[in-house]
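User: Structure tokens for this complex, please. No commentary.
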Amino acid sequence: MDVLTLSRIQFAGTIMFHYLFPPLTIGLGMVLVYLEGMFLRTRDPIFEQAARFWTKIFGLNFALGVVTGIVMEFEFGTNWAAYSRYVGDVFGSALAAEGIFAFFLESGFLALLLFGWDRVGPKMHFFATVMVAIGGLFSSIWITVANSWQQTPAGHELREHVINGQVFVRAEIVDFWAMVFNPSSVNRLIHVWIGAFILGAFFVMSISAWYLLKGRHIEFARRSFTGALLLATVSSLAQLGSGHFQADAVAKHQPAKLAALEGLYHTERGAPAYLFGWPDDESQTVRYGLKIPYMLSMLVHFDPEAEVQGLDDLEATWGRPPVWLTFQAYHIMIGLGMLFIVSTLYACWRWWRGTLFECRWLLWYFVFAVAFAFIANEVGWVAAEVGRQPWIVYPSLINGQLVGGLRTSDALSEAIRAEQVLGSIIFFSIIYALLFVLWIMLLHQKITHGPDDHLASRPDDSHPPLLDTMARLPGHADSMTHVNES
Amino acid sequence: MDLNVLWFVLLGILLAGYAILDGFDFGVGMLHRVARTNDERRIVLNSIGPLWDGNEVWLVTFGGALFAAFPEAYATIFSGLYEAFMLLLGALIFRAISLEFRGKLASPAWRLCWDVVFGVSSFVATIVFGVSVGCAMTGIPLDERGIFRGTLVSLLGAYPLMTAALTVALFTMHGAIFLGMKTTGELQARIKAWMWHGFWGFVVLYATVTAMTIWLVPRSIENFRYFPWAWGIVVLNVLAIANIPRNLVRQNLPQAFASSSASIAALVFLFGMALFPNLVTSHPHPEHSLTIYNAASSQGTLTIMAIIALIGLPFIVSYTCIVYWTFRGPVQLDKHSY
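Assistant:
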């Protein structure tokens, strides 16, 4: 295989593994803020118990998000050096802003969140939790802005840059805020956030449903489940609207991507939308599909007879993205989104009727539904990123002419060879397989251990020197160290 | 001072911050085997437990800032030193997960395994940084477009290996002093011996590397002609180093740590002096070097980024202070510890 294919495989693999964690921590961060806020307001110890339990799970996911995230930052330079030279002025700025505004905030207060229970008061701890949650949101803002700029570039100009007498063209920021608020950032950011909330909520529901089925930690599990159910229901419904706005923006700025998402090979009046199907590049049709007539024309133009351009007309200008993968990823995401809406509404109805916790099959469904939430987040990104091929930075169409843009094949590092990339793919595969196994193992261990039913009393707002003194007494350290052994 | 110089200085500050903060983490990692019992090892792990993640952010931000301010240098360094960066990523991942996973099973074999991983990954990361500094000093082969044309193996020579050894000694000393502040009793006594080992290793290697630098990399001291005030930093560096044994003898570890940190900052400063105005020195064709001018982003972006950095910096300093203040003093293990 060539360097390009290998580098794409490596980037896709490492980003998909990384993206297991950020939406989970963003979603769980919201849950933690809610729980600790409720504890401060009501002083009901069950909230504290819940907050402590979910914080442990949060910490594990956060650590994995951090270590897999550094890989991403490095890969822009290691594998996509030509891209980095072209977009550094724009993309690099967003990445640096993420470091300065988000990562320091998150990592600093994370220490208080995880290790500060007995060292700071409840109010300070709550503050730290809020800061970590905000840090997660900040981080998603900057990285989504950076990615959205690649999809719908704005606020930049192509300018010549000279190095040792060699001239080349690159993108430079001319209007920072136009770059930040490029045509798709806000829509996509909202979509990413809601996706994260759905994942966080389904994650909490999964573990809580399991406790309910096993008859353990009942009160804790009921409260966690119903709180998360509310978040999941609202988010699933909101995601439908958000998804629609986003598809609109794609139709406007990335017509070839829209055609690939919908499997529209030919320009059509009254274009249909498929519920599912099997796009076949050879025959240029979608086989075995179930379609709703006029639906796509309706969604894009609010007119059932309107014309929607297909790949046959678009390919010459925009190039052709891989249709099958884009189509399937997009349709799996939508299908799962619909499933989330139906299942959460049904669960809410049972909750209202007071029969939610007796419905064992529904609880079992929620135990496993978290996998669907992970898949929906992942395939959503697959659709977004594969659908914009062959471009790494999408061009704009101005007066019938393509302007700017960078092809993925022109974005590679000049200095790397296929063996190097193959080596690093093997290296990451081994490390990530190990990380995945350990992650599942530790989650399993933390879940089977469950929340601590008997909470140790904790010191007041001040940090009493008495504890320091006690900690230094011989023997005390030993007794404390074995608490966390198993 | 123009914006390009300002960004060179800001990157220097980020690098110095990273070297001081993660430097002691790596030192602690390399010294981990000095602790013998399980409790001692947990104390060593937890000395950096709440801190390592925040410290690593300095590297992430350094990378992001290099990308934003000098994309050409970022692209050339990261793609040119491909295997080195992969090795570094592996080391950083393993360092993090060994902290996270060691305490999760009671099996001695499991713990021993992660103890070894913790030590080795800290050592490997230190070596990669040390070698990188050495290669940056001597220069790497670049073509006229500023793209790396060579192999990683061809870069390895006596000089990068010596800078790597110097970095190992420096971080060992720095980490030992930090660990000294975080421990008590018998464990602290054993660590104290390592402060001295690290210190003498550092002094000897520092002198050797300085001599080799003057001999092998003459351009590294040319800047002192244009910036005579930089000699002041050299004097302060010598004083800071001399202050370390003084405070070790006086048992004043916080001051020894401050001196050790100041020495690292001074080394980063001297490294910057040796490079300036280059970011990536080309060898054997010095005219192909990437400088803070030909590798930079547009002036507009450097301005925006400077504003962002100025808004962000006070916040960063305040978070760091809050965390270090909260977790000051010797390690106390509790049920939230690793």
